[in-house]
Amino acid sequence: MAGILVAILLLGVLIFVHELGHFLVAKAFGVGVERFSIGFGPKLWCVKKGETEYALSLVPLGGYVKLVGEDPEEEVPPEKSEASFHGKPLYVRAAVVGAGPLFNILFAFVVMTGIYLWGVPVLEPVLGRVMPNSPAQTAGLMPGDRIVLIQGKHVDSWEAMAKLVQRSPGKPLKLVVERKGNRIELVVVPKPEEVRTIFGEKRIVGKIGVVAAGVYRVERANPVKALVRGFVYTYRMVYLTIVGIIKILQRVVPAKSVGGPILIVQMASQQVKSGMVSLFTFMAFISINLGVINLFPIPILDGGHLLFFGIEAVRRKPLSTRTRETAQQLGLIIIIVIMALAFYNDIMRLLGKGK
């Protein structure tokens, strides 16, 4: 139950951020906003301030901003003609549509910057176990050893240590380890092993056969470093999201990896147990996914509208109403198929028949 409530709250925040982007940019350019709704279907609560009705609706899997003159065929009263969406220049319409996904990505950047300012747990390069007959045991490594240097490079985290080892399959590495207050020099030769990346591609990496002791420290960044790390995280996640979707379309990554609301509930529940830093990091990740996916050129999504605007810019006139409607119907079918696949995969995972 806690996972469901957290997932609903998380999605609600991200939907609000998305729609807030459309709303604020529309207002900035003088586009009238008739309704700002979180959720679809019957209204649970609503209030009207000025020209805009703010609503909370029953189905929490989305939201929308209803703009004045949003439909090209809509009759706009003369007193509202200046506030009509379709009466605005092309760049204004593109800015309003693109603001939703952009706000999701910017929100992730702000959240991650805040997390780095607050402090993130960093796994120390301290050995908890050394596997029998492993390169680590052959080299003389022991539980409790702290790896300080690899090939003269300072190692301050388990992640940094693992990257250096993985990049050197079959190559001797000079280590400096700290053991009971003393520093010892050792040489280890990582064993080449075949692994699969997060996209299912095969890769040869070096492994030495050690397990972390689970020693953590909290690392807080100053404002400048936090901004840089927040940007780097956001950039990487945008890149990985795009590559991941492309890999699914190329069938490099299996379609069964696609997840939906049920998977989000399960993951949200896990992140709550792991702490607030994990939960907010997960929120940033989902926000980036929401932003990037909405930019894909599928009619009915924001990216589809941007595609229409691009075609309009080239043709010097908008597409016909019939063409847009046909494209949007096709886009709706694509979205329904994707959602059906996501729900199917989620149910298979619940039944233990999917991963």
Explain how this protein is built.
The protein is an alpha+beta fold. The chain has nine helices and twelve strands. The chain has a four-stranded antiparallel β-sheet. The chain has a two-stranded antiparallel ribbon with strand order 1-2. A hairpin with a 2-residue loop joins strand 7 and strand 8. Helix 1 (2-28) crosses helix 2, helix 1 packs across helix 7 (276-294) and helix 5 packs across helix 7. The model has no long low-confidence stretch (mean pLDDT 87).
Topology (SSEs and partners):
Blueprint: H1 2-28, E1 33-49, E2 52-67, H2 90-118, E3 120-123, E4 127-130, H3 135-139, E5 146-150, E6 153-154, H4 158-166, E7 173-179, E8 182-188, E9 191-196, E10 202-207, E11 210-212, E12 216-219, H5 223-249, H6 261-274, H7 276-294, H8 302-315, H9 321-350
Antiparallel strand pairs: 1-2, 3-12, 4-11, 5-6, 5-7, 7-8, 9-10
Helix pairs in contact: 1-2, 1-6, 1-7, 2-5, 2-7, 2-8, 5-7, 6-7
